[in-house]
Amino acid sequence: MSNVKIPIGPQHPALKEPASFTITLNGERILSMDLRLGYNHRGIEKACEERSYIQCMYLLERVCGICSHSHSTAFIQAVEELAGLEVPKRGLYIRTLVAELERIHSHLLWLGVAGHEVGFDTLLMYSWRDREVVMDLLAALTGNRVNYGMNTVGGVRRDISPDQIKDIQKGLDILEERTKYYVEVATEETTLIERLSGVGYLSPEDARNLGAVGPTGRGSQVDRDVRRDDPYASYGDVSFKVITDDHNDVYGRTLVRVKELFETYGIIRQLLKNMPDGPIAVKAPRRIPAGEALSRYEAPRGEDVHFVKSNGTDKPERVKVRAPTMANLQAVAKMLENNRLADVPIIVAAIDPCFSCTDRSIQIKDPSGGNTGVMSWSQIREYGINWYKKHGIDFKSKGL
Amino acid sequence: MSEETIQKELENKFSGLKGKITIKRKRRIYVDVTDDIFHNVFAFIVKDLKFPILCTITGLDEGETFGAVYHLASEDGIVLNLKNHVPRANPVFRTISEYFPGGIIYERELVDMFGAKVEGLPPGPRYPLPDGWPDGQFPLRKDWKADMLDKKPEDVKNE
């Protein structure tokens, strides 16, 4: 049979974000893959050159909806290094706490997506239900489910109360219990093991050569984790294991993520127990002295790299961002070789490429008690239009 | 290997690097290199000094020259930022893809965003700009502004 080329993307039901895979097949078997990226390029690096450091921080937080704290922290660490700021210990602890809570929500989100991609939607329903526990904690701590706005140059913007610490501890108990169940599912559920084993094989040599990072690399025995190797924030004060696995396939990547959750719970418990007193931020200058700084951060998907060059003004000369998916996509072509076409979605999903997940309805609560209800987006829109009308602004009369 | 040992090893091997190496803080080394010795220095750092991780490549518009910073990391967390420069009039870098096949995508960024050439870069799709992007427009050059997209190439040339 002659070879056939199948284009998958840039828009395709199996992809959650635009990317173009041209797959060469012999029968059902994948021979090679060509990748075309860039459909989501938004010019953020250029935009940073025209904005103040604090504006850049909020912009960079929006590079990714899931690991937003990762990007803002990676950037702000570089700026703080350039400004010579010493962030108070309590500020660093809170920053690290949000980072680890973000890892929980990201890994649970991934587990659900992986379940969905292999037709195991019960796992999706369970893990996303449990993920709400950590989403509520993040919302209580920061005011937001995503794009937390917790960082500022010189520390964090919100302190944490003793009550919140108790809430987090309670939430961790629930999550830990549920994660034990997921480990059971991942190690005992035959259909899942059979479906994921041997799929998307990436040898340790290829993983190193192609620069795979995070759970994608660690699932192929690449024992690297920036939190341990190049510690930042409060990671020097906590102990944890770097989880690796020798399956070298999608199953290995699954085990790494599930087991990493336990390490994250351990880190959070240590942070809460040893949370120092004191200020949460120091005052930062508007103008940052000229220099260059490179910041690395272990995001849920792997190493996030930000390079900042300053020129003494209040705007950066250059900001460079390397998100972990960029590093991992290089390994996807290798993972796809000799697999079947039907395995493409789970292999691509197994590197955990960035998805956006913000669409939701809003529950409205009357603070005086009484009325509680759910509004759809169209009802919210209608409500907004009427609210402005009552306050003397009629959008229709303005031709909007 | 400590930061100071790495500095000494580099200075012993390449006398031209004396005064060009800065240890800015623990685990951060910055090396400024000229294009004629770049490749030898790069190979020495990767192979002999054991820096097996390429974090990324950052392109810089420095006015008369274009810079490329190769952020290399060792297993024990040290990052060596190796900066090379090529003239703006003839911006040609040599590929490092024989050491890091995964680095191709970062080199394609230098091509698209700065209009640099990368000698030895394997053929493949461009990154990250779209296929219909106008010729001669390189967004990360300092003289590029977003409104130039609406102008014809000849108008941009005359400015």
Quick recap of the structure?
By secondary structure, chain A is an alpha+beta fold. Chain A has helices at 44-48, 53-61, 68-83, 89-117, 121-142, 162-188, 190-196, 204-209, 214-218, 226-229, 250-273, 324-336, 344-349, 377-390, and strands at residues 4-8, 20-26, 29-36, 151-152, 155-156, 291-299, 302-310, 316-322, 362-365, 372-375. In chain A, strand 4 (151-152) and strand 5 form a beta hairpin.
Describe the protein in words:
The complex is a heterodimer of chains A (400) and B (159). Chain A is globular and about 65 Å long. Chain A contains 14 helices and 10 strands. In chain A, the strands form 4 sheets. Chain A has a 3-stranded antiparallel sheet with strand order 1-2-3. Chain A folds into 3 domains: 33 residues, no CATH class; 306 residues, Cytochrome-c3 Hydrogenase, chain B, CATH 1.10.645; 37 residues, no CATH class. Chain A is 47% helix and 14% strand. With 400 residues, chain A is α+β, with helices and mostly antiparallel strands. In chain B, the strands form 2 sheets. Chain B has a 5-stranded mixed sheet with strand order 1-2-5-4-3, with helices on one face. A two-stranded parallel sheet of chain B has the order 6-7. The radius of gyration of chain B is 17 Å and the shape is elongated. At the A-B interface, β3, β6, β7, β8 and α12 of A face β3, β4 and α3 of B.
Instruction: Note the main sheet of chain A.
Output: 3 strands, antiparallel
Distance between the termini of chain A: 58 Å
- N-to-C span of chain B: 51 Å
- The CATH architecture of chain B comes to 2-Layer Sandwich
